[in-house]
Amino acid sequence: MKITIKDVAIEAKVAPSTVSRVINGKDQLAEETKEKVLRAIEKLDYRPNAIARSLVNKKRNMLGVVMPNEAQDFLSHHFFLEAMKGMSAFAQEKKYYITYAFSKDEISEERYVRELCDSSMVDGIFLLRAKDEDKVIEYLKKISFPFVIIGRPQNTEDVLWVDNDNFKATYNLTEKVINKGAKKIAFLGARPHWNVTKDRFNGFKISCDINGLSVDENLVLYGEDFSEEIGYELTEKLLAKKINIQAIITTDDLLAIGVLKKLKELCMKNIIVTGFNNIPLAPYQSPSLTSVDIRARDLGYVATELLINSLEGIDNINNHKIIDCRLIERNSLDFEVKK
Amino acid sequence: MKITIKDVAIEAKVAPSTVSRVINGKDQLAEETKEKVLRAIEKLDYRPNAIARSLVNKKRNMLGVVMPNEAQDFLSHHFFLEAMKGMSAFAQEKKYYITYAFSKDEISEERYVRELCDSSMVDGIFLLRAKDEDKVIEYLKKISFPFVIIGRPQNTEDVLWVDNDNFKATYNLTEKVINKGAKKIAFLGARPHWNVTKDRFNGFKISCDINGLSVDENLVLYGEDFSEEIGYELTEKLLAKKINIQAIITTDDLLAIGVLKKLKELCMKNIIVTGFNNIPLAPYQSPSLTSVDIRARDLGYVATELLINSLEGIDNINNHKIIDCRLIERNSLDFEVKK
DNA sequence: TTGTATGCGTTATCAG
DNA sequence: CTGATAACGCATACAA
User: B74 contacts in A (CB within 8 Å)?
Assistant: First the structure.
């Protein structure tokens, strides 16, 4: 039999409510009774029942996260697991638990979110992607259920979110590439309608402008999706234009790996290639791939901070937070200026 | 205000207990009242409060998993995330939730497990590694808290566990290598005291024996840990022996990658190399690395099945389950017999 | 077949 | 400062 607050009360010869007060560190307690109770708790090895507690407090100390189907792709593992680690770290500090589930598709994702909220299983929810006109977001807003998004949502009003500054990261990266001496720079992306993609392109464009290079529209190509194959194909298209390219900036490591593959096949060596996301594969490429670390763990950590603060009524200075990226320079950044 | 069973009762003009019966599908209900209640539920969009339910049922429908610090290593991401997916999949089928946390170290791991159990936050626990003389295991056994281990524990008595048949997998793999025509086969492992390592070595050894090859003790080397560097160094040591090796079987992809690197440097081509675990890097090696898929997702899935069955009083035919590995043949298995 | 009363383990309110 | 009691939302034994 699990021992309860009553057992402790009997052992300490006090009322259950007194035991409760001791546990919750209420003031106005005689030092003597406090110790008596503490001894009883110790003796019986008593632990409060979290469920009963939640029932009366209407607070679960539990957060929910639904991993989107993209996580099915093993190359996103890195991002998601890192984010989960960050979430776990902050949650533990604040004595929160996190429950997770992988969704098979958008339908099951939505259903699961609703289930979590409606059955009051969780106090708040993480969303790990920011789609436009997201049904889940709409729903959460409607029932004003607390949530935080990792990624910048379409409509940032009244939502908590964390994201990288994709503009800035690409801006700096492009600057770096330009400083290496590259003048003809291509830009390869995928999913052009996504915010991330737009931001990264803008960072590229503005950086070129500021640094006195004009962006050649011919050198900006988009694929349907992020994959090695598409990077490979885009590179083919790019090279078909017979322009003397000196650098290829991509919005994703997978694309970049495809680029490297194509270049390698053609033995084209003096071209800078950069990726994004710094996936575990990046250092293992040859040349090792320069990439941008988006610090997924920090994203998770800070997202949790925003969410829990909001739950506990602690004022978040801002309803969002930007995590700076970190450029990871590797060999694919090497470039030798030809005279 | 959240709507409760009482609101439904009023709406349907019945007693709360009747509503409860409808929800839980009890028999002996007039079809008419059932429908009345169902309509009320529909109309009010009522969802039972999971917490209140748990309190009376003494059942959380929640499982806990502590990710060991090994998961910090980004190359194990694959395994852990896959396992989590499998767990999630089965749990969802049975309407269970899973809460997770990453532990910083063994201390925090133990503390977290105790917390989960003692506060009756979860009905059962997953352990994702099988250490000898594991304090956590001992504790769980002592308080007879339901748990399942992914990995074969030291003492299999009265514990639920799932694992691969590492012996069989290596046995088959070795056979394959031998059938390719290799005669001088090296074995590289790490953590020789681990069960996995022992099992894999035995599979290798017995397979050699059965197939009429004697294992050359000189060709069996162990490193401290699983890493590319160690694979690289072990290969150096191996080659220093001046034996004409035709295949190198390793117990881990990271080791194998180190092996490939060394061989590449020396331009030694006609040597079979095999890894284990089939990490995402494997297909990207050159030559692409032959490896053994340990089917982490299935491990997670089946572990959850064992655990939930045991919780629900469904008899598990066995207290453990073996998941067959799958050999993933890639180019590093190519071998040309010299005449 | 359905309603009433009680309890799950805790906390909050209100007396004392 | 502490004790008794009600309430959180639901399920069940018992009564009707």
Answer: 78, 82, 280
Which nucleotides on chain C have any atom < 7 A from a protein Cβ?
1-5, 7-13
The bridge status of strand B97-102 relative to strand A97-102 is antiparallel
The pTM of this model reads 0.90
Residues of chain A contacting B300 with CB distance shorter than 8 Å: none
Interface contacts A/B by beta carbons within 8 Å: 109
Please report, for residues A56, A100, A225, B230, B322, the alpha-carbon distance to residue A112 in angstroms, rounded to integers and kept in the order given: 25, 10, 27, 44, 31
- Residue B323: its pLDDT value, please? 96
Residue B215, pLDDT above cutoff 90: yes
pLDDT band at B130 (very low <50, low <70, confident <90, very high): low
Q: Is the pLDDT of residue A69 over 90?
A: no
Q: Is the dihedral of CA A240, A241, A247, A253 positive or negative?
A: negative
Segment B10-16 mean pLDDT: 92
- Of the partner residues B77, B101, B119, the one whose CB lies closest to the CB of residue A47: B119
By Cβ distance, the residue of B55, B85, B101 closest to A92 is: B101
Beta carbons within 10 angstroms of residue A105's beta carbon: 11
Q: Count other Cβ atoms within 10 Å, centred on residue B255.
A: 30
Cβ within 8 Å of A, B 22-41: none
pLDDT digit string, tens, across residues A110-146:
889 999 998 889 999 999 876 667 889 999 999 899 9
DSSP H or E segment with residue B52? helix B50-57
Chain B positions touching A89 (Cβ under 8 A) are 102
A109 confidence band (pLDDT: 50, 70, 90): confident
pLDDT tens for B177-188 read 999 999 999 999
How many angstroms separate the CA of residue A64 from the nearest CA in chain B?
9
The stretch A142-159 carries a mean pLDDT of 91
Give the model's confidence band at A73: pLDDT under 50 very low, under 70 low, under 90 confident, else very high.
Answer: low
What percent of chain B stands above pLDDT 70? 96
Which nucleotide is closest, CA of B18 to its C1'? C2
Tokens of B118: 């003692």
Residues touching nucleic chain C (CB < 7 Å)? A 2, 4-6, 16-17, 19-20, 23-24, 47-49, 52-53, 55-57; B 13-18, 21, 27-30, 32-34, 52, 55-56, 58
Long-range contacts of A230-233 (CB under 8 A, 24+ apart): A230/A190, A230/A254, A230/A255, A230/A258, A231/A188, A231/A255, A231/A256, A231/A257, A231/A258, A231/A259, A231/A261, A231/A262, A232/A258, A232/A259, A232/A261, A232/A262, A233/A258
Q: Residue A244 has which token pair?
A: 């003397």
pLDDT grade for A292, boundaries at 50, 70 and 90: very high
Q: Is A42 on the interface with B (CB under 8 A)?
A: no
- The tally of CA atoms less than 13 A away on the side-chain side of residue B105 is 1
Query: Could you tell me the sign of the dihedral formed by the alpha carbons of B141, B147, B153, B158, in that order?
Result: positive
Contacts of A281 in chain B (CB under 8 A): 280-281, 284
Looking across all nucleic acid strands, the nucleotide with the smallest C1' to CA distance from residue A119 is D9
Which residues face B105 on adjacent strands? none
Q: Would you say residue B21 has pLDDT above 70?
A: yes
Tokens at B37, concatenated = 């209640």
